[in-house]
Amino acid sequence: MDTREKDIEKLKDYKYGFTTDIENIKAPKGLNEDVIKFISNIKKEPKWMLDFRLKAYQRLKLLKEPNWQKPKYPKIDYQDLYYYSAPKSMQDKPKSLDELDPKLLETYKKLGIPLQEQARLNGIAVDAVFDSVSVATTFKGELTKHGIIFCSMSEAIEKHPDLVKKYLGTVIPVTDHFFATLNSAVFTDGSFVYIPEGVKCPMELSTYFRINASETGQFERTLIIADKESYVSYLEGCTAPMRDENQLHAANVELIALDDAEIKYSTVQNWYPGDENGKGGIYNFVTKRGLCKGKNSKISWTQVETGSAITWKYPSCILKGDNSIGEFYSIAITNNHQKADTGTKMIHLGRNTKSKIISKGISAGFSDMTYRGLVDINSKAKNSSNYTQCDSLLMGNKCGAHTVPYIKNKNYDSNIAHEATTSKISEEQLHYCQQRGLDPEEAVGLIVNGFCKEVLQQLPMEFAVEAQKLVGISLEGSVG
Amino acid sequence: MSEQLQSDFDKLVKTSKFSSEEIKFKKNFLNNFIKNGFPNRKQEDWKFLDISQIIKKNISDLSFFNDYSQSNKIDLSVLVDGLEHNKIIFINGKIEKIDFNFEDQNKIEIIDETKKDISFDYENSLIDLNSAFIDKIFKILIKKNYSLKKPLIIYHLTNDKIKSTNINLRLDFELGENSCLKLIDYFANTTAKNFINIFYNFNLEKDSILKNYKIDKFRNNNLKYSFNNIEQDNNSVSETFVLSAGSDYFKNEINCNLNGEYSSAFINGIFSLKENQQHEIRTTINHLVENTKSYQLIKSVLGKNSKSAYQGRIFVNSKAQKTDGYQLSKAILLDETSEFNAKPELEIYADDVKCSHGSASGSLDENSIFYLMSRGLNYQQSKELLINGFLMEVVEKITDVEIKNLITNIIGLKQ
Questions:
Q1: Looking at the complex, does the CB of residue B336 fall below 8 Å from at least one CB of chain A?
Q2: Which residues contact A102 (CB under 8 A, 6 or more apart)?
Q3: What is the DSSP letter of B146?
Q4: Cα B333 from Cα A420, distance rounded (Å)
Q5: For chain B, which end, N or C, has fewer CB atoms within 10 Å of the first or last residue's CB respectively?
Q6: How far apart are CA A359 and CA A2, in angstroms?
Q7: Is the predicted pLDDT of residue A38 greater than 70, yes or no?
Q8: Is residue A212 exposed (0-12), middle (13-18) or buried (19+ Cβ within 10 Å)?
Q9: CA A440 to CA B151: how far, in whole Å?
């Protein structure tokens, strides 16, 4: 059973690895005040936004890059990156899809995300982000009818400054850790969602991130606000071309749920993972944080992480409102030389708050996977509870699976339960499946899908099917 | 602090009879410690309870000087009754008596190791501190095929001659092939505000068995740190039991290397804490070869203003297939001011393994209390009965019946 050789033999096809040949406008290389001013200027931002960025930049100068994570990476030269890159045709904002550069339309079509509404994905509104700018947002008309704001961050800064000013940076302050602060200083675009009071968003909202230009970091910022008694389900997908160099993706995502509101945030992350020798790939260093601000609010994170050379992120929930609920469902798959250090933080501050963590990690090839999580129940969070389950599956003995949970219980009324297991696919299960006519690869696929089922169930229908396929593809060739 | 360390060290050199060789070694350790200082919360292993802060808060006038030229009187009244045993009596930082009267003297060898190079490769500045200021280091060698007839009790005592002082102890144990040692650490400190730093190094050869029971039961205001390093060869067994209840601060660290096939390690611990106590157990089990096994069970009962932490790490090397590793930590929080922290960690590089951990914490189950009260017990009695049962599970894991009874009595549990 030599998994390794078979692994190398059967190279995985990354079908999103193409590049779109398009003319770009870039900011000068490097990170300094002028570049920040350039970004702010080209986006025609008001002064308060520039001040926000500069404040973050001042703070950034004092911060050091963290180094406690498990996957180590060569030092990033922040002066050797482009912080802004946008298709030239986007300079004068096209008014409609007809004016949009056909090359861009073609790119999204190839990725399976048609932007024309005729070819719409069943009732999903899409915001497409290409390198540093949002190129199109679909179904705007329909959403406006309900009073829902769904647009690019730049547009929101221009048209809804009050909302942005009120909420931006309240969950992830500009003084947060290194990458979050870097993002606050140089973020380029992203999605903005506001669901007004009492509205249940009639369709899934989604953003599709695409990195195209080389030597470019993508720094997008997403802000979702669910006002009282509202509901929204939001999806995020990502891909990038195949390149030999590592590219940095450092996004910030802030969610705010007011009284009785619910936000469901799902991610299928499939950035380019690098080749089978670990060359190239995206560094996915993302800060995602949700604040259950109001009582009875709920935030639920679901993620399927299959791509990226290094994934380093902890979608978190701050349960501030009484009776609020935080959930985290995750599947992380690493193959070849991929590395992941991911998990969640559940900070219980309000009374009767509940959180649930289900994490499934699968590592194959030479990869390394870490679940790192924090459950912190504050002394004021009376009668709160947490349930955590993290299971890891190992394929081969060249890979690693690690579990590092931090558990802090400061409240005698509250309960925390944590369980974790690490094992491999049992010979009996494989034998059983093969006996019934499945080949070994199919058998593993079936068992892995069963292993991940609890998480896959949480995804919206259209995504679940795609994610299930992705799980299969990511592990191709890892069974001997 | 570095000036004080230096001057206390000079004073120590003056009053003791160290050879120039020893002084050279010691100086080296001293310099390492001066460089690194006490560990603090910036270090991952000291995240939950920061010893440098705790020492600063509790013993502001900590002295490192200990006059080894004076001998101490042994207070016979503290000795354990009703169990025949061998003893090592350690008072105020000095080993006053080593007594293996119940054993065949040819089978046990006591070697003075003070003059050897005793450096130990482990990133921990407290071991440097220990090596720099220690009086004598003994190695206890148990020869092939010999099982001690009676357990060995090490008495950790302090008397009123000593105050606000750092006390160091180091013992090395070598268990020859197919030998067996039962070792009880018995803490009975009558004075307060000392920092006691203990380092044991065990080497278990093929088929040997080590059972170590640490009993810190009587309430005292000392700070303690204990580090056990255990190296295990083929088919050896180590069993460690920790009762962590008496001191203001107590951190037990156990590092176990399973170097031989079919070796196994068992660690069981009880925290029973009250007013302002802060205790921690940190374990590292390194599964380095095939077919090794480890099992850990840690339970806490936490009263007012107390805090316990458990950091358990299971490491499985890529060669260590068929590893079986298990960790469970449970805590009952009795008061709104009590706090429980845990970090059960798995680091696994082999696929054919069975590793799991669990952690649960919360208050006493109201339904169980209701059940007991409906059968005529009052609230206090029901609570006590439940806690009794909760802790009894850990005590039941003790494999030596005699010692199990002794510990049950010391804790005051009902069977």
A1: yes
A2: none
A3: -
A4: 23
A5: C
A6: 28
A7: yes
A8: buried
A9: 56
Per the structure block, which two tokens stand in for A192? 């903005």
User: Would you tell me how many other CB atoms lie within 10 Å of the CB of residue A170?
Assistant: 13
Per DSSP bridges, beta strands A415-424 and B354-362 are antiparallel
pLDDT digits (tens, 9 = 90+) for B146-174: 999 999 999 998 888 888 889 999 999 99
Packing angle of the helix pair B401-411, B379-395 (nearest 10 deg): 150
Q: Check CB contact under 8 Å for B357 and A394.
A: no
Torsion of CA B171, B176, B180, B186, to 10 degrees: 0
- What torsion, rounded to 10 degrees, do the Cα atoms B357, B360, B365, B371 define? 0
pLDDT, average across residues A304-325: 92
The sign of the torsion formed by the CA atoms of B65, B69, B70, B72 equals positive
B99 inside 8 A of chain A by CB: no
CA distances in angstroms from B293 to A281, B234, B265, B393, listed in the order given = 39, 12, 6, 20
| A404, A406, A412: residue with CB nearest B338 | A412
Q: Is B318 on the interface with A (CB under 8 A)?
A: yes
The residue assigned the tokens 């979608």 is: A315
Q: Is the dihedral of CA A9, A12, A15, A19 positive or negative?
A: negative
pLDDT of residue A4: 44
- At residue B126, the 3 state secondary structure works out as helix
A364 in Cβ contact with A395 (< 8 Å) = yes
For residue A405, what are its two tokens?
């949970």
Instruction: Using alpha carbons, select from A78, A25, A26 the residue that is nearest to residue A283.
Output: A78
C-alpha B371/C-alpha A3 separation (Å) is: 56
Q: Return phi, psi of residue A464, to 5°.
A: -60, -40
Task: Identify all chain B residues contacting A416, using CB atoms and an 8 Å cutoff.
Answer: 359-362
- From chain A, the residues in CB contact with B41 under 8 A are none
**What size, in residues, is chain A?**
480
Kindly compute the dihedral angle of the four CA atoms of residues B142, B188, B274, A374, in this order, to the nearest 10 degrees.
-30
Global pTM value: 0.87
Q: Which residues contact B207 (CB under 8 A, 6 or more apart)?
A: B177, B178, B234, B235, B236
Cα B396 from Cα B405, distance rounded (Å): 10
Residue B204 CA to residue B258 CA, distance in Å, equals 10
> What angle (nearest 5°) sits at the alpha carbon of residue A317, between those of residues A313 and A319?
165
**Candidate from B44, B337, B349 with C-beta closest to A397:** B349
Which of A1, A397, A404 should we substitute to test contact with B (largest number of B Cβ atoms within 10 Å)?
A: A397
Q: What is the DSSP letter of A207?
A: E
Tokens of A198: 């009492």
What would you measure as the largest C-alpha separation in chain B, in angstroms? 73
- Confidence grade of residue A12 (pLDDT, cut at 50, 70, 90): very low
pLDDT, tens digit, 9 for 90 and up, residues A186-239: 988 888 999 999 999 888 888 887 777 777 778 889 999 999 999 999 888 877
Question: Can you spell out the DSSP letters for A8-53?
Answer: HHSPPP-TT-------EEEPPSS-SHHHHHHHHHHTT--HHHHHHH
Q: Which residues contact residue B15 at a Cβ distance below 8 angstroms, ignoring those fewer than 6 apart?
A: B67, B68, B69
- Do A386 and A357 form a contact (C-beta atoms < 8 A)? yes
Read off the DSSP letter of residue B31. Answer: H
Give the pairing of strands B138-142 and B108-112.
antiparallel
Measured between CB atoms, which of A405, A409, A419 is closest to B333?
A409
Residue scoring higher pLDDT (B117 or A322): A322
Chain centroid offset of residue A456 CA:
16
Helices then strands, counting H and E runs in chain A, come out as 11, 24
What are the distances in angstroms from CA A234 to CA A187, A347, B299, B359?
20, 22, 42, 33
